[in-house]
Amino acid sequence: MARPPAREDQLGLLQGTLDMLILQTLRRGPAHGHQIATTIERTSRDAFQIDHGSLYPALHRLLKRGWITGTWGTSANNRRAKFYALTRSGRRQLVREATRWERVVEAVGRVMRPADADGGTR
Amino acid sequence: MTLPLWLCRLVPYLARRQADADVAEELRLHLELEQERQRDAGAEDPDARRAARRTVGNAILIRERTRDVWGWRWLDDLARDVRHAVRALRRSPGLSATVVIVLALGIGANTAMFSIVHGMLLRPLPYPGGERLVRLGREPRGMAGAPVYLSAREIERVQEAAGSFEEVGAYGAFTFEWSSPDGSLPWGAPVSPALLRLLGATPQLGRLFTDGEARPGADGVVLLSHRAWVRRFGAKPEVVGTVVTVNTERRTVVGVLAEGFHFPTPREEVWTPYVLRPDEPTAIVLGRLREGVSTERAATELRTILQTMELSYTVAQRRGEIAIRMALGARRGDVLALVMRQGAALVATGAIVGLAAAAAGSRILQTFLFGVAADDTLTFVAAPLVLIAAALLACYVPARRATRIAPMEVLRSE
Description:
Number of helices of chain B: 15
Low-confidence stretches of chain A: 1-13
Number of strands of chain B: 10
Oligomer: heterodimer
Helix content of chain A: 55-70%
Largest interface: A-B, 26 and 34 residues
Largest sheet of chain B: 7 strands, mixed
Order of helices and strands of chain A: HHHEEHH
Mean pLDDT of chain B: 74
Mean pLDDT of chain A: 78
Order of helices and strands of chain B: HHHHHHHEHEEEHEEHEEEEHHHHH
């Protein structure tokens, strides 16, 4: 079913961001779904109350692209859990995403604080 | 065990199944861990569970979205539609079978719902425009031959909508014996007022039936044949207006038909107005084609009309179900798409069966009927296209109507 385009854009942006946050989290080592969710929440100092449900479709999106792998293992308290780990191409993707993200932040910053931007010209 | 990525990409179906099983388990664990975390943060037990549930969200929806990541969602949709269709078929097997059969035969047998009888039956009879008289109806299951009866509703629709016919009339399948004043048991037949006009009957005395006299509850009337008038009523002109008993009913004689008018066979001596039932198909239907209209064109038109009615009816019957879907939050587009996909499934079944039957049966049919070629372009290309388009429209219109009404209104009225 076709959705109104505005909503699709919004979702796309959120999706992309979440994917990047997941990749970034996995840079520290393999983790299962709940760990990823809580890590993102904690490191963002709870600024991102991420919707835990949306985590799993995102993880599968990354799996499909080959940026992460998923292996069943045993969690700290002895329960079966699926651990996700960054692949080599996932690492490259993270670099690409992070670069793009910094450029966006920088550009938005220049627009929002034009004085700083002028002063900052080299 | 986890499937390798290349296999998942190659066979998304496997990936979907694996993803679904995995996510189900992961979500269970996630929920447990989240609950523990909430408890550690100081929440009471039931609160912790509730909070965990809220954080994780709708598990079924998450599983669905995760599966969809791997593609092939259409396969799930298709499987679901097939399940729905089977359930619907079970609920009303007769009706569903009728839809498929009507479609199949409508497309398939060139003469399916429209048997051409003028060459065999009606031509010898002295009716005006006799060469353009045709009999119409539904094909009996799987056989070529005499068309089956139509209901009043269908006849009305054909009369309204079919531009191919000058006039459409009906008569009862069962002729009857009645007790004449002299104690013998001559024959009679129920005929619709339109049928007498169609056959060019003219009264020698009195008049023909009016349309009102064929409605349920109308006063009983009867027409006499010339022979009955002469033999049983002494050819007295005063017979018009007298009351006679036909079987147990008392009927007023409104007219005597001109000499030489026979219908359906020469033995009938009286005619009563044929009262049609709205839903029960009991009538044998005759029509006179407009000048220059081919039987092919009329047949296509007739099929389209009848099939549209059948499908509209099946969809209209689902108003309650549609209302429930809407009340549970289904979007209009989704419901419409669902109905359309199911309609398309029925149509496709009918079309496939029909075209196969046409290919196989055209030769056999040709030997049965005159001037009929089932392998012409019209039958194989144009007619199926028109039928399919009409069928889809027949699903769309009532479905759209059903999704427009507030669900509560529909549900309250059922």
